Amino acid sequence: MEADRSVLEIWGKSQLQGQVKISGAKNAALAIVAGALLCPEDCRLQNVPSLVDINRMSQILEALGVKIERQGDILDINASQISSDRAPYEIVSQLRASFFCIGPILARLGVARVPLPGGCEIGARPVDFHVRGLQGMGATVQINGGMVHAYAPPGGLKGAKIYLDYPSVGATETLMMAATLAEGETTIENAAQEPEVIDLAAFCQSMGAKIQGAGTKKIAISGVAKLHSTDYTIIPDRIETGTFLIAGAITHSPISLAPVVPEHITPIIAKLQAMGAETIAVAPNQLRIVPAENHRATDIETQPYPGFPTDMQAPFMALLSLSRGSCVMTETVFENRMRHAAELNRMGADIRVKGNNAAIRGVPMLSGAPVVATDLRASAALVLAGLAAEGTTRIEGLHHMDRGYERLDLKLQQLGAKLQRVPADS
Ligand code: UD1
Fold it and tell me: Are residues 261 and 397 in the same domain?
């Protein structure tokens, strides 16, 4: 699946109905595909979403000499032979998460060369925590020519006590993977507690890794000499879940979603409730959204898990722009993640951004307009706004959407939304 240069046309104001199937979690799958590098035997991954980002991560593994086969949502990976220690720049530069490969490559081969991922649409996103953690485990790290060269000490990485200045998801994952094959005990303090970190730990455990405390602020890993074959199923995507809950709320449609893990979306449900919407568990892994007639404004601040996820900030901004009253959205995780506000304003929203705060005054209606998706979650915000707007919305920049939402347009069509991809020049 290559980057799509077409645009999405949405004819707003359709009522949605029915049930949507939630795909496997993008961020869990990305880390787990990288984690398959740790395993010298067959790895079968199930519920892997079909996404441009996952294809890119797979291409990195292939460039390292790993065998990968995909059939539907199953990915079969065999990393018994890793013939290169160098991840290709062309791919790493397009997918920040591919930097996370540095942990498993270094643990398996004793040397890893991975390009610095560089900035991205939502901020600088440095990798200093990853690098410092690996150094703590005895690695020598040199950065030259835009490439991080990491060398394990003779005898391999050593267990270490690591403290993260910030609970970075990626750094927690890189270091946890590296530690599974290090000699001795590693502890990661102030670790990220995201469900995707727990899923990666569970995947590593299924291969024989000894990990305790994933999902808490302190993870303890006792290194083992070798991991073994596994067959592992990835959790449902909590951000896709949240996006469809808002699709129901913003179109006033009581749609159902499955499979979902309600405890992964506690802050999302809490904020929907604060706005007057209800979520009903119709089965243990199925939720229905019951929208309010008029959603109320509510303040939101993004935080590391279990706080409100930064990846839901843009989609919520679309709903808040149509709510009754005023509120403030504060972004604390990334420094440049509010560019969708200007695009929402083109559709009639009243949002003023100052630094990392957005003051949102609810308006009674949005109107369709040509808009540009500036990053992955911004694309979702514009689709949601387009569903609720009067008239036609034309969204450019669909390559962002395809990075992280599996067939979002198709899933919405199946719920009754009126939208289609058309060539950019039509
Ligand atoms: C992951 C998610 C992304 C999500 C983010 C926060 C994946 C593939 N992506 O990104 O969707 O939005 O978590 O929940 O899982 N930082 C540093 N130095 C570092 C690492 C991070 O300063 O070495 C900073 C970042 O610039 C950012 C903050 O820490 O301001 C959080 O980043 P982090 O949790 O690492 O995000 P990612 O793992 O890149």
Answer: yes
Condensed to tens digits (0 to 9), the pLDDT of residues 136-172 reads: 999 999 998 889 999 999 999 999 999 999 999 999 9
Ligand 1, CB within 6 Å, residue ranges:
27, 30, 96-97, 123, 125-130, 166, 168-171, 192, 196, 310-311, 333-334
- Same-domain check for residues 229 and 133: yes
**Segment 187-228, tens digit of pLDDT:** 999 999 999 999 999 999 999 999 999 999 999 999 999 999
252 Rama sector, left if φ>0, alpha if ψ -120 to 50, beta otherwise: left
Together in a domain, 10 and 40: no
On whether both 248 and 261 belong to a single domain, the answer is yes
Residues 41, 190: one domain?
yes
Ligand 1 atom 5: the closest Cα is on which residue? 169
Helices (H), 128-221: 128-136, 169-180, 195-206
Determine the distance from the C-alpha atom of residue 268 to the mean position of all C-alpha atoms in its chain, rounded to a whole number.
15
On whether the CB atoms of residues 187 and 113 are closer than 8 A, the answer is: no
| Å from CA of 144 to ligand 1 middle | 23
Give the number of the atom of ligand 1 that is nearest the alpha carbon of residue 196. Answer: 15
Which sequence positions are flagged as catalytic?
120
CA 48, CA 291: separation in Å to the nearest integer?
Answer: 30
Neighbours of 237 (CB within 10 A): 30
Number of structural domains in the chain = 2
pTM passes above 0.90: yes
Domain range enclosing 240: 3-22+236-423
Q: Is there a contact between 197 and 32 (Cβ–Cβ < 8 Å)?
A: no
